[in-house]
Amino acid sequence: MGRIFGNLNLALALGIVLLLATMFGLHGDAMGEGDYAHWWLRFFHVIAGVLWIGLLYYFNMVQIPTMPKVPAELKGGVSKYIAPEALFWFRWSALATVILGVALAETNPTGRYLMPALAFEQGYRVIGLGMWLGLIMAANVWFVIWPNQKKALGLKPADDEAKAKSARTAMIASRINFVLSIPMLYCMVTQFYLPE
């Protein structure tokens, strides 16, 4: 047991095996149907979104509030090893979530809804608002948070004053995403279950 769960790759492989067993056990008869590919898109969109928003919540609820309490001699462990790795997964899961969301909206078996949603047409206003919030958040990740974090973490040359300013800018942008994530998640979860 320790060998499997102590190794990230083996644990991931086990999760995939369990996914396939669950998938074929519950929906094996639907595998040949055309709509099943759409459900794969939805599944991976949700997985990418969970990773993205999970890291957003980690940064805002754990790392940002805890860093001032970390002794100076230990801060390098976070800024050199943990934060860059977390930011790698953070930015790429944001992009994957957006790409998969667009694909999901454009391949919906009951009709494409990307443009109607983005235009807030009747019947798509809730998901449209969720999409716009997600797009704003993803742009914030790539064009505000990541460039500023590169400076703050010393991944891009900057003096101490610029690093401090960049750290503050990245934190504020991250906090904005944290706030926007709450109504965004509400829109994503309720679109197809509550009337407008």
What tags apply to this protein structure?
2 domains, single chain, about 200 residues, mainly alpha, 7 helices
How do the strands and helices of this protein lay out in sequence?
Blueprint: H1 2-5, H2 8-27, H3 36-66, H4 72-106, H5 114-118, H6 125-152, H7 160-190
Helix pairs in contact: 3-4, 3-7, 4-6, 6-7
What does this structure look like?
The chain has helices at residues 2-5, 8-27, 36-66, 72-106, 114-118, 125-152, 160-190. By secondary structure, it is an all-alpha fold. The protein has two domains: 1-31; 35-190. α3 packs antiparallel against α4, α3 (36-66) packs across α7 (160-190) and α6 runs antiparallel to α7 (160-190). The radius of gyration is 20 Å and the shape is flat. The model has no long low-confidence stretch (mean pLDDT 92).
